[in-house]
């Protein structure tokens, strides 16, 4: 019932948009909508697509520059330019361009999810819906999956195509910890027994926020209630009471007795790499592989997930801005980036090592075997354990609310 | 005694960190308490060169910084002289007004300017970036130049004019040589500020203008100290390089037979 309502609202929204004054945009969207995939590829031929994305990881940069660029050129004759920029600034730029009425933008593809998507969608910055026209998305992905229909509780409405999938894991030094904790209570016990050897990034950091969400999932009376209903302050208030109690109990046993917290994941990673703390954490279950390889993390690094409450995972997406000048090229690029071959190369630890949102059941045997046989490295826990522990994200509005509350309830105590 | 103190402090606070940074860029991570062992690695530098736009980015950063510096000096000297040597109504108010850009957060200024730049067609182009880099630099240059003119006083200038030297000759033979220390500090400050602008460059340049910080800043969020050290070294060398260029230009400007080089003072 709820879903039909949402679809109806979506259609009504589209209808209203069609009636509004800026006919040019909608015409362009309509044009592409009516085109067949062959026609789109014809248009894309020779276009230059500028992919704007965060650029602080050589593995990811290398994947784009050394693998995707030449392959995409060969396959569709589309030139890909990778522009390193923080996602926040990308959205900011689009917002200003919209206000200034600039309809020939420089951005053709954006990599994002969560709050950034919400902001972009609410401000009508995105082109689409386009995902129903992407052949590889239709062929190899479970398009009905809630993971693709919702992005941190915001409906994607076909405005973004899933590019990758990550899950939250903890990393620990096996030379110092024999048995990693499996529940929040065991984690508390670990902190008590090893004072100063555990801490988490302060709220406000992407990873710190996610850690607090795990505690919320674990301490809430029902995870389903959190996941199913939109954000409400009352529910959040009652459900989070035990979260603050738990974190406050933990504080005296943390690194520097909780007097200060690492302000970012980078700082926590540095403490871990120096052996000051024995655990670090983060989204992307394969993250440690590359860091161990480079000698930044100790060789004895291994990973674990909490069985209770589980491990939060999310999907990240690719979108096309409304004022892109190369929408067809961008669609061709998305089709390639979502294809099994590109996803397989992305999974390889040499480049990025990140998990694929592809549905293995929809692949042919050869491709499926390639995915299943690929060795993701020793620090990555097996897929079954990850799948069993998987938890989806809650409404994006919880994120800023928990941040503020954490400062009041924990940091300033 | 005083001298040895100076040298030991200089070594401790300036030379030692610089050497350490150099070492860090060619060695893997060392853990506190581990025995000192040197395994050399070029990983930091190969990551640095990996982005094939890096040379272009270096060149563009330099070009932007030097253009910003030249505009700064031109505006700063005129404004500084006016503020120092003439008196008019509302002078102190004007002085305060000129400092105001420093108190506006860069992000707020950038967003407001972005709309204007789009309308003027300067967004996504390096000239637009030059203009926006003037916002956080000009106030400093004006302050420095005003102090320079305060120190210079008007006597020498008046004397030169009395001896029938035109304003340009006075500038070249009296003002510029005597203001050189102020010019140097302004140049160094402006170049460093311009080269470290991430937000302003990112928004106005919109990703079409790729300077060093655009490539380098995202790496600040990584824990890979080896790569960071390599980037930081280049980042530190660039301003020195830019100052050398300005120094050469000013040599060219101050003619050989200038009043001061004849040793008449």
UniProtKB/TrEMBL annotation, chain B:
Q: Where in the cell is it found?
A: Cell inner membrane; Cell membrane
Q: What membrane topology does this protein have?
A: Multi-pass membrane protein
Presence of the UniProt keyword Aminoacyl-tRNA synthetase in the record: no
Annotated Gene Ontology cellular components are: plasma membrane
| GO annotation terms (biological process) | transmembrane transport
Q: Which organism is it from?
A: Jeotgalibacillus proteolyticus
Q: What are the transmembrane regions? A: 54-75, 96-117, 123-142, 186-216, 228-249
Q: Which SUPFAM superfamilies has this protein been placed in?
A: MetI-like
Protein name, UniProt field = ABC transporter permease
Keyword flag Transmembrane helix: yes
Family per record: Belongs to the binding-protein-dependent transport system permease family.
Could you list this entry's UniProt keywords, alphabetically sorted: Cell inner membrane, Cell membrane, Membrane, Transmembrane, Transmembrane helix, Transport
ABC transmembrane type-1 domain mapped to chain residues: 58-246
| One Pfam family matching this protein | BPD_transp_1
The source's superkingdom equals Bacteria
């Amino acid at each position: 019932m709820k879903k039909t309502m949402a679809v109806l609202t979506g259609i009504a929204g589209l209808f209203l948009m069609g009636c509004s004054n800026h006919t040019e945009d909608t015409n362009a969207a309509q044009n592409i909508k009516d085109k067949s995939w062959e026609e789109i590829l014809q248009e894309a031929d020779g276009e230059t697509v500028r992919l704007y994305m965060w650029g602080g990881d050589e593995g990811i940069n290398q994947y784009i520059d050394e693998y995707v660029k030449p392959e995409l050129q060969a396959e569709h004759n589309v030139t890909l330019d990778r522009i390193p920029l923080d996602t926040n600034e990308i959205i900011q730029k689009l917002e200003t361009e919209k206000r200034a009425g600039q309809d020939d933008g420089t951005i053709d593809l954006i990599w994002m999810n969560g709050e950034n998507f919400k902001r972009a969608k609410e401000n009508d910055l995105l082109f689409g819906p386009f995902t129903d026209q992407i052949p590889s998305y239709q062929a190899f992905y479970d398009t009905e999956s809630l993971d693709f229909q919702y992005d941190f509780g915001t409906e994607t409405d076909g405005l973004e195509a899933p590019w990758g999938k990550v899950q939250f894991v903890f990393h620990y030094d096996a030379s110092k910890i024999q048995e990693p904790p499996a529940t929040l209570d065991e984690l508390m016990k670990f902190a008590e027994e090893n004072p100063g050897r555990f801490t988490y990034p302060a709220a406000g950091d992407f990873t710190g926020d996610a850690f607090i969400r795990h505690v919320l999932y674990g301490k809430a009376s029902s995870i389903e209630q959190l996941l199913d209903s939109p954000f409400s302050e009352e529910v959040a208030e009652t459900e989070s009471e035990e979260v603050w109690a738990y974190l406050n109990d933990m504080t005296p046993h943390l690194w520097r007795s909780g007097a200060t917290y690492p302000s970012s994941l980078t700082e926590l990673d540095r403490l871990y790499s120096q052996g000051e703390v024995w655990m670090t954490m983060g989204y992307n279950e394969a993250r440690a592989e590359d860091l161990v390889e480079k000698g930044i993390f100790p060789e004895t690094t291994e990973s674990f997930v909490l069985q209770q409450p589980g491990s939060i995972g999310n999907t990240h997406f690719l979108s096309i801005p409304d004022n892109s000048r190369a929408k067809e090229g961008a669609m061709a690029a998305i089709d390639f980036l979502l294809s099994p071959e590109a996803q397989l190369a992305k999974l390889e630890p040499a480049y990025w090592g990140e998990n694929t949102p592809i549905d293995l059941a929809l692949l042919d045997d050869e491709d499926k075997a390639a995915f299943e046989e690929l060795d993701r490295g020793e620090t990555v826990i097996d897929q079954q354990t990850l799948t069993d522990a998987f938890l989806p994200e809650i409404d994006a509005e919880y994120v800023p609310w928990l941040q503020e509350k954490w400062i009041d309830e924990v940091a300033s105590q | 005694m005083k001298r040895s103190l100076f040298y030991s402090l200089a070594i401790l606070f300036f030379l030692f960190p610089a050497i350490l940074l150099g070492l860090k860029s060619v060695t893997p991570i060392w853990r506190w308490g581990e025995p000192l062992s040197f395994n050399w690695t070029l990983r930091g530098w190969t990551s640095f060169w990996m982005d094939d736009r890096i040379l272009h980015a270096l060149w563009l950063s330099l070009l932007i910084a030097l253009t910003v510096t030249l505009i700064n000096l031109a505006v700063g000297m005129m404004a500084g002289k006016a503020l120092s040597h003439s008196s008019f109504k509302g002078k102190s108010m004007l002085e305060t007004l000129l400092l105001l850009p420093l108190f506006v957060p860069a992000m707020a200024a950038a967003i407001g300017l972005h709309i204007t730049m789009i309308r003027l067609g300067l967004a996504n182009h390096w000239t637009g970036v030059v203009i926006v880099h003037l916002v956080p630099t000009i106030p400093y240059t004006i302050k420095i130049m005003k102090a320079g003119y305060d120190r210079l006083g008007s006597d020498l200038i008046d004397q030169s004019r009395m001896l029938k030297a035109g304003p340009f000759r006075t500038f070249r033979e009296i003002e510029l040589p005597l203001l050189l220390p102020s010019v140097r500090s302004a140049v160094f400050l402006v170049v460093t500020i311009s080269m470290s602008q991430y937000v302003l460059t990112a928004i106005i340049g919109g990703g079409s203008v790729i300077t060093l910080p655009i490539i380098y800043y995202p790496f600040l969020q990584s824990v890979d100290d080896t790569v960071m050290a390599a980037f930081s070294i280049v980042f530190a060398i660039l301003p020195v390089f830019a100052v050398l260029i300005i120094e050469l230009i000013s040599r060219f400007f101050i003619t050989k037979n200038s009043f001061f080089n004849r040793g008449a003072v």
